[in-house]
C-alpha cells in the first residue's frame, strides 16, 4: 500500500519565486518598522518633558525678577525680614519689607523682688568662711564653743547657714546668744535684722514670748512697738498669730474694734480677712 495522499506535496512547477521574495521582503520591512516607531515615541516624550521643565523654570525665575537668590529663599526660606510683593495699578511690582517685631520682656515687680532675695541669699551662702574645722576652732578660742554658749552641732549649723563669726560675736556681746537658738540667729542674719531691734523686744519682754518668725515679719512690715504694746495690754498679743497682727496693723484695726467683736460673740467665728473688711466698712 503506497503512502500517496498521506502528505500533500506542492508541485515544484507551481512555485513562484518572485512572489516568495516579495513576501519575504515585505515581512522584514514591517518587522523593522515596529521598534523605529517605539523609539520615535519615546524621544518625543523626553523632549516634551525637558521643554516643560524649562518653561516652568523660566516662569519661576521671571516671577522672582530673574533672581536665583529670591527664588531660593522663596522655597527654603530666609533669615532676613520677610517681604511682600504686590502689584501696582500700572502693573509694576512693589516689594514691601516687613520688619521683625520684637516683643519686649515684661518684668514683674514681684519677680524683681524674688530675684533680689535669691541673689542676696546666694551672695551670703558664697561668703568666704573658713572651713568648718577652722570655724569651730575660732569659736572655741573666743570662748563661744562651750556650755551655755554654742554646742558643736549648733556651730556647724551656723557655719552651714553662712553666718560669719563676727555676727555671732555681736549677738553674744548684746547678750542674746544664751536666749536664741541657731535657727533664730541664722534667720535674723539672713533678714538683716539689726540687734537694736531685738533690744526693743528684750526690753518689752517679748523676746521670749515671740518666735523668730514673728519678729522677722514684724520687722519686714514695720509693725510698731507701740501697736504691739497696745495689743499686749488688751490681751491680744499672745492670742493672735503674727499674720493676724501684721494684717491688723497694716489696715489700722484697733483694739477697741476687737473688743466690740468680742462683745457681740462674733470674734471667734471671724478670720482676719473678715475682721479687716468689717473694720473698713464701718470706718470708711
Task: Please describe what this structure looks like.
This protein is mostly helical and 284 residues long. It folds into three domains: 49-91, no CATH class; 129-220, no CATH class; 221-284. Helix content is 60%, strand content 4%. It contains 13 helices and two strands; from the N terminus they run ααββααααααααααα. Strands 1-2 form a two-stranded antiparallel sheet. The N and C termini lie far apart (149 Å). Residues 1-13 and 31-38 have low confidence and may be disordered.
Tally of DSSP helical segments: 13
H and E string: HHEEHHHHHHHHHHH
Tally of individual domains: 3
Q: Could you give a short account of the major beta sheet? A: 2 strands, antiparallel
Mean pLDDT metric: 77
Helix content: 55-70%
Rg on CA atoms, Å: 51 Å
Shape: elongated
Cα distance spanning the termini: 149 Å
Strand content: under 5%
Number of strands: 2
Query: Pairing-aware structural class of the strands and helices?
Result: mainly alpha
Q: Stretches where pLDDT falls below 50 for ≥5 residues?
A: 1-13, 31-38
Strand order of the largest sheet: 1-2
Secondary structure blueprint with pairings:
Blueprint: H1 17-63, H2 68-76, E1 83-87, E2 93-97, H3 109-125, H4 132-141, H5 152-160, H6 165-173, H7 182-190, H8 195-204, H9 212-220, H10 225-233, H11 242-250, H12 255-264, H13 272-283
Helix pairs in contact: 4-5, 5-7, 11-13
Quick structural overview:
The chain has 284 residues and is mostly helical. The protein contains 13 helices and two strands; from the N terminus they run H-H-E-E-H-H-H-H-H-H-H-H-H-H-H. The longest helix is centred in the first third of the chain and has 47 residues, at 17-63.
